[in-house]
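[#protein-structures] MJ: dropping HAD family hydrolase here for a structure pass
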Amino acid sequence: MNRSASRGLFRTSLALFGAAVASTALTTAASAAVPAAASHDAHAGARAAAEHGCAVVWFDLGETLVHTAEDSSTGYMPGAAAYLRELRERNIDVGLITNVPSSWGETDAERAAALKKEVDGTWKGSVPFAWEDFGDRILTPRAEAERKPAPALWERAKGDANGCRLVYEAETADETDVAASLGYVAYQVGQPSRPAYLPVRVIERLAHDS
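AK: finished. structure tokens for HAD family hydrolase:
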């Protein structure tokens, strides 16, 4: 999909978000993600999603949830800890799609462990980063060619969606454009005159409309 079409999908997502804020009812043209694999577990997950609704909110990490200060220390972006807590309280799954050097490990788990060590080693603040909320949903490049904004990481997340609606939140339009082009409801954080993050009530409505 070309960049113009991608931006069109992104603008559509924002327009739908605006309608939800005004009326607390959101409808969206983005289709629910369907896993490529046809395994029994995947079908069972898709059926559960259809019956009860679900959503997974994927985030970039740096300058979306975590800020790096001039002294190289890290800490939560304003409002990020409370937002993750609200998602956790509403039983909405979250994940990270973030660039790290592919040399940090052979697997996502190894690279995630290196990422945690890197962030925790420079962390400042009384509340630690909520790694436990993300479980094994931390996707990182297996090769430098997979680094965002290449679509590989979003495609991997979409392949494991089991019918859940997918949301992606990041600070850069380059990334939200790609996510929108792949069927995610994409939200650029940190924009003036808008909530810092996509409101949880909107995500709940997306889940039930999936």
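MJ: nice. Helices lie at 3-23, 40-52, 80-89, 108-121, 152-159, 173-181, 200-208.
AK: one more thing. Residues 1-51 have pLDDT under 50 and may be disordered.
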